[in-house]
Amino acid sequence: MNDIRDIKRTINQEIVKKIFSNKSNAIEFLSLYGYNSNELNKLASKQLFNEIVKIWNYNDARDKIRSIFQSTPKFKNGLRGEEIINILIEEWKTLNFGEIKWPFSQGQFDNFVQSINSENSTRDLKDEKVKTAAVRYRRIKELNTERNDFLETLVFLKNQNIIPTLSHNRGVDFFIDGISYDQKVARSPTNEFKRDFGGNWKQKAIDNPALVAQYLYQFQDEGRFGASPRLLIVYLDEEITPIRIKQIIENTSMEIPLKITFDFNHKSTGIQTYKTESFVILLFN
What we know:
13 helices; 6-stranded mixed sheet; 15% strand; alpha/beta
């Protein structure tokens, strides 16, 4: 559960696969070391990953992987994030969708439709409500994808000692100073945090990012439980401009992680205590 990987000390085929993800990325990396790309194409992914393990040198590999990442569409898209996000927000306003918020929770579409069906209104009006909600949902998903790419790009540029994974890989998004981190974006510091600190919850969060991390670990869904290091990006306000996001990340330290201790109440084994580390970026107006 507390799966910490330090690629400055050692690396294996499993970790190489997490970083490079596919044969194409592995070939591009090995080509930077003078390997013949035609010969590399004849090898299976497993053989390519094993070759990377053999020649691995952290400092040299870090620079090469960062260079490869900067040529990816994801990074280039992230550089345009400020522009793209502003366009999406303006389109939202043009459609008169009001506040940018979810029309229904993820996985709750059936319940949402059932609530619409139970209303005392015409079928046409019900259809329009569902259509509008579906479009709002799709656009928020699109906006969040652009925000996440923008955030990852800003984080990548913030610290030269960050190695990103070259394709989406559940469980690891970055290696920071050699240590694996999973990026998690949260829409709040949890309802429990808000309840415990009442009307002062927002300032409490700003003053205590480590406490925010503790709550997010402690009150995570057990089905997705993990105690591994995380880069936590937490929205304290719903609508944050790209300029404000950039300003916050510029002022957030990405050098030394916070030490986190938390208790988790497992259904089968009861309360257990975990120690981990985390970087926390709080987004607020």
